[in-house]
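Async update (no meeting this week)

Hi team, since we skipped the sync, here's where things stand on the single-chain job. The sequence we agreed to prioritize is pasted below, unchanged from the tracker. I ran it this morning and attached the output directly underneath so nobody has to dig for it. Comments welcome in thread, and please keep replies under the output.
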Amino acid sequence: MQLSQRTRTSILMLAFLLSLSALLALLQSPVRDMRDWKEAKATILESRTLVISARDNPDKMHWEPLVAYRYEVDGKSYFREKVFAVDTSLPADMSHAEDIVRRYPKGKVVPVFYDPDQHDRSVLVRGGDNSIRYGKLILAVLTVLIGSALFSVYRQRNQAD
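Output:
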């Protein structure tokens, strides 16, 4: 069965918009799940920047912040290293990693958000950092622009038929 050009364009447009919508929903899901998390106080135990390089290419490096903290819930102590709800372990530049380390110096007492059902699940920041937020915004704008362009092409082809 041969599909017309118009049908193929419609299917492509729908698949594109659905996949981007799913990606945006996936990026937002950790933040939505944390709305009911409780707040406690955490003490920063360690805060430093890690320089990571691949064994096969030692000249290619990226930097990751390491922030370890301890907090107590119901008299029990927990230890974690997760700063953001949205994983930010993508390769980062040195200044980004150092900004996070400066924000959480060793010995500082900071708020921590923990899961009331599983007290050992926690983060220091419920959402992602600014680069993740900007990425979501850019992705949303691109989705609208490309979706509009595809819809415009679809309308023009419909009017031509």
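Quick observations from my side:
The chain has a mean pLDDT of 79.
Residues 5-31+138-160 form one domain.
Reply here if anything looks off.
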